[in-house]
Amino acid sequence: MHGYTGLTERNGVTTVRAGVRVDEGRFECERGQSVHVRRPRPVLPREKRLRMTATPAALPTLLVLDADPLPRLGKLTGRVRVEHADASTLADQLPSADVLLVWDFTSHAVRSAWPGEGPRPRWVHTASAGVDHLMCPELAESDTVVTNARGVFDQPIAEYVAALVLAMAKDLPRTLELQRERTWRHREAQRVAGTRACVVGSGPIGRAIVRTLKALGVTTALVGRTPRTGIHGPGELDRLMARADWVIAAAPLTDDTRGMFDARRFGCMQPSARFINVGRGQLVVEDALAEALTKRWIAGAALDVFEAEPLTPESPLWQVPGLIVSPRT
């Protein structure tokens, strides 16, 4: 090019302005006009074209420790390769997995399978708030990232606790029994507003339970590991349980909380009080609770978690009077 008064180039397109003669394209520009000359793309040798062709990266492998119902993973289609395992196959499949999703959060299979030979997933996620069912020394000491579903279940569990409180206060289990018997019988029901609740466990779930019960007019006291503003310490638990209409366990499992609700603690409760556990099954001495209900030391209870899960058909807990049994609702 020559004789130009202005020229710019962008994205492979040359723009020439007034007074420019473009010899290669045989274009002449009049003053005040502009012309665009698009340069042809160079033809690369075949070898170079092959080198520039992107090779698709291998998809990461997501291994799912299954439970019924299966997780919905449709949004991951084309992004990961999904494989499924159960307790019997987990150890053999771990070495080929990049990520492990512990969907069966009642299983202890990870704890037993992890110490085996071969590489291990770089990320383990459990579909539960607690991780005690999968942690072992080998996993804790490894570089694998372990995550949980903290915060996902706070409000749903709080709503379920509120449902249990209302169900027991209004004696809904007996209402359903009378319906099945086709028996018409008037009964008195307890008013929930104005009652007292002692919530043990000051984590996100415990705080959500407090907020939800307050909306029903329940006076609440929250007990945590360390006393601070708005939270009572463990030393006040017996006194608060003795005054409560509802004692709700939502604490994590530690050496201090294991078996904390025993015969002595149930003996502290009022005969009209009720007990609910949505924390960990090992918080409760189940035989002591069954005795307290059978001897009517307390008016009722609901267990959503158990020391051994799933609860077998032979378990005596199914037949304990005044006990509502549910499988981690």
Mean pLDDT: 87
* Residue share in helix: 10-25%
The assigned structural class equals alpha/beta
Strand order of the largest sheet: 12-11-13-14-15-16
- Topology pattern, helix = H, strand = E: EEEEEHEEHEHEHEHHEHEHEHEHEE
The profile of the biggest β sheet is: 6 strands, parallel
Number of strands: 16
Distance between the termini: 78 Å
Low-confidence stretches: 1-5, 12-32
**What would you call the shape?**
elongated
Helix run count: 10
Radius of gyration: 33 Å
Strand content: 15-25%
Short description:
The protein is α/β, with parallel strands linked by helices and 329 residues long. The protein is built from 10 helices and 16 strands.
Written overview of the protein:
The protein is an alpha/beta fold and 329 residues long. The chain has helices spanning 46-52, 90-93, 109-113, 137-140, 154-169, 172-181, 204-215, 237-243, 263-268, 286-294; strands at residues 7-10, 13-16, 21-22, 27-28, 35-38, 61-65, 81-85, 99-102, 123-126, 145-147, 196-200, 219-223, 246-249, 274-277, 300-303, 323-325. The strands form four sheets. It has a six-stranded parallel β-sheet, with helices on both faces. A five-stranded parallel β-sheet has the order 7-6-8-9-10, with no helix packed on it. A three-stranded antiparallel β-sheet has the order 1-2-5, with no helix packed on it. Strand 13 (246-249), helix 9 and strand 14 form a beta-alpha-beta unit. The longest helix has 16 residues, at 154-169. The chain is elongated and about 90 Å long. Residues 1-5 and 12-32 have low confidence and may be disordered.
